[in-house]
């Protein structure tokens, strides 16, 4: 349902049940989205046993990212016809199924089918659905609400390294993936908090029944002879009107049908957004930063363990500190930007530049104490770039009805760039992990 600006401003609560939707999105992100960043810890030793190494890890995670993002082609139209709650529930079931199937994977192909396909498709449904659910309830507090909902991902990323390390030590790879699959299902209560807001608004817009009093007055004051505009007798011929396209005699409708079908496809996917060069430039920039983020999340644990020589416990500690700083940033940065009236696009730009510099410095370090400090700094700065990606799109896209499709097209751009660039970083051998991290730092 699309409202005009005054109506949307009046009906958008900016609070109330909207905060419960934020809580539901945070729970869903904490139990599902956070698992994606733990790929190196969960599957690192298993891939080594398979003889795949970082090249195999890059292949699995890049196919996962490709499917996650290419699902944006259908996610946008799906969200226009189905509620965010239904889409999120389906995504949670797919993510959990992928983790459970990964527990019995014995080779790279099976791992690609289970983790890359099932989990990738599930995450591709969850990401835009949770954002759209929160976006519907907020206008003036949108940055704060989105930051809090995505803080759930940060909480999960802070806790998950320690949880994964404990599970691997106690239950091994198979038990860990089974338990994580069950953990994904804990996002179901969060998704159930997503109310269908259009029905709530429709209920509020129903006016109470008001009895109407009718009054009839009989008068004889109208003189037909003195009223030339009155017609005594008029004959109205019977007509039949058919609404649709009127075909001219002798012309074929095949071309019109073809054009109509093409137009329906364009309108269904909102492909007319691709004619906007500013929008194209925006989604390409977002896709490049996303690709570097995925590569960093994949390489970072390998870099700490193989290049720096940290133990599994120290590696988990660094990842937890990075995620902890990320949580603090997702809560505080929206307050700072709102106070200084900094736009979401400018915040994203500043965060991206600072994060690239911080990663470049981190890639040159080998002292544990400095790595901890830089992990904290990287985590805080990363949030400015990650949180404002979808917000930058909504800030530019003024038509609320096109936001799901705009986010979906952005996801497709991410998938295309991951295919072209993401595999390059993963193909670096463990001896060149520092070089890979330095390259993606400059590129980001």
Radius of gyration: 27 Å
Let me know the largest β-sheet. none
Overall domain count: 1
Provide the CATH architecture: Up-down Bundle
- Regarding quaternary structure, how should these chains be classified? single chain
CATH C-level class is: Mainly Alpha
Pfam families: MFS_1
Protein name: Major facilitator superfamily (MFS) profile domain-containing protein
Subcellular location: Membrane
GO cellular component, one term: membrane
How would you sum up this structure, described in words?
The chain is mainly alpha-helical and 444 residues long. It has a single domain (12-199, 270-443), classed as MFS general substrate transporter like domains (Growth Hormone, Chain: A, Up-down Bundle). The protein has 17 helices and no strands. Helix 3 packs parallel to helix 8. The longest helix is centred in the middle third of the chain and has 43 residues, at 142-184. The two termini are 38 Å apart. The model is unreliable at 1-10, 199-209, 239-248, 429-437 and 439-444 (pLDDT under 50).
